[in-house]
Write a structure and sequence with these properties.
Low-confidence stretches: 372-381
Mean pLDDT: 89
Number of strands: 16
CATH topology of the largest domain: UDP-N-acetylmuramoyl-L-alanine:D-glutamate ligase
Number of domains: 2
Distance between the termini: 56 Å
Strand order of the largest sheet: 3-2-1-4-5-6-7-8-9
Structural class: alpha/beta
CATH architecture of the largest domain: 3-Layer(aba) Sandwich
CATH class of the largest domain: Alpha Beta
Shape: elongated
Order of helices and strands: EHEEHEHEHEHHEEEHHHEEEHEHEHEEH
Strand content: 15-25%
Helix content: 25-40%
Length: about 425
């Protein structure tokens, strides 16, 4: 398995530093070896304290890894002091390993992560060893000693940083006041602007993760241009999947794609099991002719492609669940989630007066709607209209139909298991 080495600080809250680097490299299929430079006591609101390791211990970690493991690329993050930075630069300059240098000066929460002597050591020793230097705008300004306010300043800074010895410079544009977020790669005398939608929110760990993604792609043998493009695509997904774990800055999630795949498997498996059990309970007159439809959305779903649907027909083989299937019911769930993000599951039954009475006697929160227009040409269920009219998501909507749609009984719940429990209560 390919191995990349990260030389950086430890983040006790796990959103940045070594902890984020390991996840980011793993997301690219690369094993992360580590050399810790400093131990920080920090959370999503502040850096409480920093304990730098002696430079000799940092080098001892690097030596231990390199004497046993073939390392295909490396990165530096928080180096903290001139002593550590100089020692790391000298040690890594003896290796023919692509080196990504993230010149970390400030934590995502805004507190300093360096001593005053670090900047000169970065200029004199670390940057000349860099295959790719990845500063954000404030870091670049500190290194070049002038303000960066527009595209001309960005290009000037890239050239000046490369003149310090870096083979390539990836200047991150997150701090620029522009409509899009544009990172600028300078390599071989050429510029590449990599743009994407600006996310108007802070994220903890983004810089660490981007440099780790870049190192992991270099470890896989990609060139600098390819690695930068792959890293940009992956960091955009990680930022979009950021989540709050504390009271402060949300953490960027480098394993977003892998976690989403795991969620998709869990959602489809749970949905299929509940649908099979539901069909065993239902009398035939409550199952629509086309089969019993049930759907379950991923957390935070925003489109029907993130809602798993299934249609079970009594007496037939076990049904298959598919994302984007049962689009009408999927739209109903998305409408429900706009009122209550927990309402991720729904099912539809044939309407009968007996079933409507059973719903009301089961102790569930139910509401009856009738008439009105369809919510959209493709939605025939009127679910969106019903929920907008009600202003909340009940356990059951008894839709008596009208204006081109047939009657139906629609159930909502946080999960398919709870739908199943409510169905049992209705049929009892």
């Amino acid at each position: 398995m390919l191995v990349a080495l990260t030389i950086a600080g430890s983040d006790s809250v796990g959103g940045a530093g070594i902890q984020a680097d390991i996840k980011a490299m793993a997301s690219q299929g690369v094993h992360a070896a580590v050399a810790i430079t400093a131990i920080t006591a920090q959370n999503t609101t502040r850096v409480a304290s920093i304990y730098p390791l002696p430079a000799r211990e940092v080098i001892a970690q690097i030596d231990a890894v390199l004497e046993d493991v073939h390392v295909s690329a490396a990165k530096t993050g928080m180096l903290y002091s001139a002593e550590i930075a100089t020692a790391v630069a000298e040690r890594m300059s003896r290796e023919s390993i692509p080196l990504v240098v993230d010149p970390v000066l400030v934590a995502g929460v805004g507190d300093a992560l360096n001593r005053a002597d670090l900047l000169e050591a970065l200029r004199e020793h670390v940057i000349p060893a860099a295959t790719v230097l990845t500063p954000n705008v404030p870091e670049a300004e500190a290194l070049v000693k002038y303000s960066i306010e527009d595209e001309a300043d960005v290009r000037r800074a890239c050239r000046d940083l490369a003149a310090m010895g870096a083979e390539a410079v990836l200047l991150k544009g997150g701090h620029m006041e522009t409509d899009e977020c544009t990172d600028t790669l300078f390599h071989d005398g050429k510029f590449l602007r990599i743009s994407g939608p600006r996310v108007c929110a802070r994220g903890h760990g983004g810089g660490c993760i981007l440099s780790s993604l870049l190192a992991a792609n270099l470890a896989k043998g990609n060139n600098i241009w390819e690695s930068a493009l792959a890293a940009k695509a992956a960091i955009d997904e990680a930022i979009a999947a950021r989540h709050a774990i504390g009271r402060g800055v949300p953490v960027v999630e480098p394993l977003a794609h892998q976690l989403r795949d795991a969620q998709r498997y869990q959602v489809s498996t749970r949905l299929r099991h509940a649908a099979v059990e539901a069909v065993k309970l239902l009398p035939n007159d409550l199952v629509p002719l086309s089969g019993f439809a049930m759907a379950f959305a991923l957390p935070g779903a925003e489109s029907v492609q993130e809602v798993c649907g299934i249609r079970a027909v009594p007496g037939t083989a076990a049904p298959c669940a598919s994302f984007g299937g049962e689009a009408v019911l999927g739209e109903a769930i998305l409408s429900a989630m706009r009122f209550d993000g927990r309402a991720r599951a729904a099912a539809e039954l044939s309407f009968t007066e007996d079933l409507a009475r059973s719903v009301r006697s089961a102790g569930l929160v139910s509401r009856t709607v009738r008439g009105g227009r369809r919510s959209s040409p493709k939605s025939g269920t009127g679910a969106q209209d019903a929920l907008i009219h009600l202003g909340f998501v009940p356990d059951v909507v008894i839709d008596r139909g009208g204006s081109g749609r047939g009657p139906a009984i629609r159930m909502f719940a946080p999960s398919p298991e709870e739908l199943l429990a409510n169905l049992r209560a209705i049929l009892r």
